[in-house]
Design brief:
The protein is mainly beta. Helix content is 12%, strand content 36%.
Length: 371
């Protein structure tokens, strides 16, 4: 297994280094042949150490190889990070496709701009995991030594950047030149696209909502880096309400909390406020797996009210009720009645008009992103 974290030195196997390493080994053994204890120890360890000496390093001017460097090596076409998402850090983890699924090689490419890459590896079928925009130091061997071990690593929502979201992809690698990896965000976006209030026909007709805020509660803040845990929440923050202690831990707190306007009336206001969260497809709104909610908060007269909305519990536009990775859930809201006094009690549908649309993350024509 070859392991290298140097950004200017791409990880891989190089058979050309075998002769040099072997000479060094046997020269060392000859020089200490008069020391039987050490010689016996080396001979016992030699079968374990030999694979490490078979690993080489090949450099390229920009830190990774292009398709023309070695035409016989299979390439991976990396998609999903064109334009605004390019220029991040790409980690490439290559695993053997056998019973143990152990790490074959690890590469880290800084300042990646969406070009094809060559995943250096030994012969045989491989599974390649690509991780993008991770806000962390290079992996240690014991963190990624097998696919099952790598699957235990998690991303934290507190470290997410809306301009550079964590992304991942898994693909099979063969000797063809048509290997493709489609990087996709691990998180989802919740969009409050527009909002208004009209209390016509009520005792408080003509009132407005002041100090309008929006945030998400019961937020899944932990998700496997390699994706795919069935949407089960890993760690809940803003449990049942806005928690300012949770908010202070965020690199970009605007991804879960926004102050919208000083006053809201009948005229619909476009907000384009986006929030990020990890998947939550819990089947039951229970203490250990509560539904994620979009909460509108504001004051009418001197009283504070809340309009909590369960996000996509009808499963509209999706095969799964709740929140899935790589989707945008857009809301247009018209408030008709006073809200509730508990931010964890879903609002009665008759008190609020909701239009929700669900789109894949990369479809933005009707959901302009603004942070």
């Amino acid at each position: 297994m070859c392991f290298n974290n140097n950004k200017n030195c791409e990880t891989g196997w190089s058979r050309g280094n075998l002769h040099t390493h072997s000479e060094h080994i046997f020269t060392s053994v000859t020089s200490i042949i008069s020391k039987p204890c050490i010689l016996i120890l080396i001979l016992r360890m030699f079968p374990l150490l030999l694979p490490a000496f078979l690993c080489g390093c090949s450099k390229s001017p920009d830190g990774y190889r292009t398709a023309s460097d070695e035409p016989d090596m299979p390439i991976i076409k990396v998609k999903g990070i064109e334009g605004e998402y390019s220029g991040g850090t790409l980690d490439i983890l290559t695993y053997n496709n056998d019973r143990l699924c152990r790490l074959d090689s690890y590469q880290r490419i800084e300042d990646f701009h969406g070009r094809t890459v060559k995943a250096e590896h030994r012969e045989g079928e491989k599974t390649v995991i690509l991780l993008y925009n991770l806000k962390r130091k290079p992996f240690a061997w014991n963190e990624i030594c097998s696919i099952s071990t790598a699957g235990k690593l998690s991303c934290s929502l507190e470290e997410e950047d809306p301009q550079k979201p964590f992304m991942a992809s898994t693909c099979r690698l063969d000797q063809s030149r048509d290997n493709t990896a489609e990087l996709a965000p691990l998180s989802s976006r919740i969009c409050l696209r527009s909002i208004s209030c009209d209390f016509s026909g009520t005792a408080y007709a003509g009132n407005t909502i002041k100090d309008l805020k929006a945030y998400i509660t019961n937020v899944n803040a932990e998700y496997p880096m390699t994706g795919g845990n069935g949407g089960k929440p890993g760690r809940i923050i803003n449990a049942g309400m806005l928690n300012h202690d949770d908010l202070r831990k965020f690199r970009c707190p605007e991804i879960i909390y926004r102050e919208i306007a000083e006053e809201l009336g009948k005229i619909s206001m476009t907000t384009d406020a986006f929030f990020l969260c990890y998947p939550n497809t819990s089947s039951e709104d229970a203490p250990g797996s509560p539904f994620t909610r979009l909460v509108i908060e504001g004051r009418i007269d001197s009283n504070t009210y809340y309009w909590p909305i369960n996000i996509n519990r009808s499963g509209k536009g999706s095969s799964t009720a709740g929140i899935e990775s790589n989707f945008t859930y857009c809301y247009d809201i018209a408030i008709r009645r006073k809200g509730v006094t508990d931010p964890d009690t879903p609002i009665d549908p008759k008190d609020i008009d909701i239009i929700m649309t669900i789109k894949p993350w990369n479809e933005k024509e009707n959901c302009n992103v603004s942070f």
